[in-house]
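This part of the workshop introduces the protein records we will be handling. An example says more than a description, so a record of this kind follows:
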Amino acid sequence: MPDGIRYCPGMGASTRRVRLVLLFGGRSTEHAISCVSAGGVLRALDRSRYDVIPVGIDPEGRWVVLPEDSPVLTAVSADLPTVNAADGIEVTLTPDPTRPRLLVSDPSSPLRDLGTVDVVFPLLHGPFGEDGTIQGLLEMSGLPYVGSGVFASATSMDKQHMKRILAASGLPVGPYTVVRPGQTLSETERERLGLPVFVKPARGGSSIGISRVDAWADLDTAFKAARSSDPKVLVEAAIVGREIECGVLDRLDGSGPEASVPAEITVTSSAGFYDFEAKYVSDGARLDVPAQLPDELTERVRATATAAYEALDCAGLARVDMFVTPAGDIVLNEVNTMPGFTSTSMFPQVWAASGLDFAALTDRLVQLALRDGSGLR
């Protein structure tokens, strides 16, 4: 626990305001969604308790402190904002656990210390942020941070290894294969997976680079789209069923994770799946929160979400995506360790429906980070 900060379950009281770095943007293709998520969290945080420092990472990887009224943080989802290093003060985080601080990194002036940091909310989506990289840096700096650690973040981001661990834990996953650079899908794999298939970056998110393939003649085009984000490509068999999402949060009393009410996504767009446009730009999907499921199935969905969370050694939060087949079977699709926090994002919606509004949700996440600290848990 940082000096001067005292974690108190429920109250979150402290001897001074908690100094929180809200980290967003980043080098992945999900840069814009991260910015919009950060704006949502910034508006939800209680300023009587948190001294918030917005730090954006531009697409080249430069860190800059931005004003709270920056257009990057006030944009709506459809605006797709981008962090511009020229709009802020460039800083760097010291990888020194004895003095976790932000330093102004302008080479034309002497080093200036912007002070101690107590906790980081890394609202980064995709590679170079959600995949264990930023978590490793924060561990080196000795800083508490919201969300899963290095291993769970890296494993959940790489869908191949995520599925392997889920399957090894006895949890249901659908048929899939991995196609690496220079490879294509063999005839044997085509017969096993059947049509349609979904082709996606193995380490991506926000449905960027995903294609539904209904004819094998379109496979190369789908590979090209996926490889624009990641050279490693996942090909998944289509699962016939309802698309269900469930949020998972750790409890402040240390008694383990709990699951939200499930929600259902019904796609209405011509794309035939929950793509980027349907998620953030158009009205291409209907969200039912909570999902209209029988009580017994609802409880199985929640139990499966919690089991997946624990199998991957997640911490803090995650959104677990799955399918429910017409026979009532559950098939896991993905586990997202840092889901979106935009106005249309499912994670805050399912928790609001479960009795935890946006402000209470963000506060709980920060309190969990302060409770757990950094290092091995």
Notes: The radius of gyration is 21 Å. The longest strand covers residues 242-250.
